[in-house]
Recover the amino acids of this structure.
C-alpha cells in the first residue's frame, strides 16, 4: 500500500487504488505556459470514479479571466469525485518526511472538498482551513478535522 493509500484508508476508511501515471499534455498548460492549469486537469480527468490525481508539476489556478493565475497546492470539485494535488510547492527546501506530511494534509483536504466540506474558519489547526497560498498554514494544520467539520461529514 502506498503512503497516500494508507492515509486515505486511515483517515476516511476508504480503500483506494493507485493507477499508472498519465502525462500532462501541453493543452493543460496555464496562460503563463510555465505551469499547468489545475481546472483543466480536473476537467480532462473528471470521472464517476473518485480520483486523487497527484503530480510533481507546478499547478496554478485562475478564478476568472480578469484575475491573474496563482500557484496552488491542490484543487477539487466540491462536491465531486476528482481532485488534483501537486508536490511541486510542497517539497521546497524540506526533507522527504516533511513533504509527505504536507502531501497527506493537502490530499485529505482536497478529498474533504470532494465530500462537500467547505473551508473551515473555526480552528486554525483543522485540515479544512484555507491555506491562502501559504505553506505556513499547511504546516500549522494537523491531520485532523475539528468537531464542526467532522459533524458535516456525518
Amino acid at each position: 500500500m502506498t503512503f497516500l493509500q494508507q492515509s486515505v484508508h486511515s483517515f476516511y476508511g476508504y480503500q483506494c487504488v493507485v493507477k499508472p501515471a498519465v502525462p500532462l499534455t501541453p493543452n493543460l498548460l496555464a496562460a503563463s505556459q510555465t505551469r499547468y492549469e489545475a481546472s483543466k486537469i480536473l476537467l480532462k480527468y473528471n470521472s464517476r470514479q473518485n480520483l486523487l490525481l497527484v503530480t510533481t508539476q507546478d499547478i496554478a489556478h485562475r478564478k476568472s479571466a480578469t484575475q491573474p493565475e496563482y500557484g496552488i497546492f491542490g484543487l477539487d470539485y466540491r462536491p465531486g469525485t476528482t481532485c488534483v494535488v501537486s508536490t511541486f510547492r510542497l517539497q521546497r527546501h524540506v526533507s522527504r518526511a516533511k513533504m509527505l506530511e504536507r502531501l497527506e494534509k493537502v490530499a485529505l483536504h482536497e478529498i474533504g472538498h470532494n465530500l462537500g466540506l467547505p473551508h473551515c474558519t473555526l480552528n486554525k489547526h483543522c485540515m479544512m482551513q484555507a491555506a491562502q497560498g501559504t505553506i505556513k498554514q499547511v504546516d500549522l494544520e494537523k491531520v485532523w478535522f475539528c468537531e464542526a467539520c467532522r459533524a458535516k461529514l456525518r
Remarks:
- Strands lie at 36-37, 51-55, 59-61, 70-72, 74-76, 82-86.
- The radius of gyration is 15 Å.
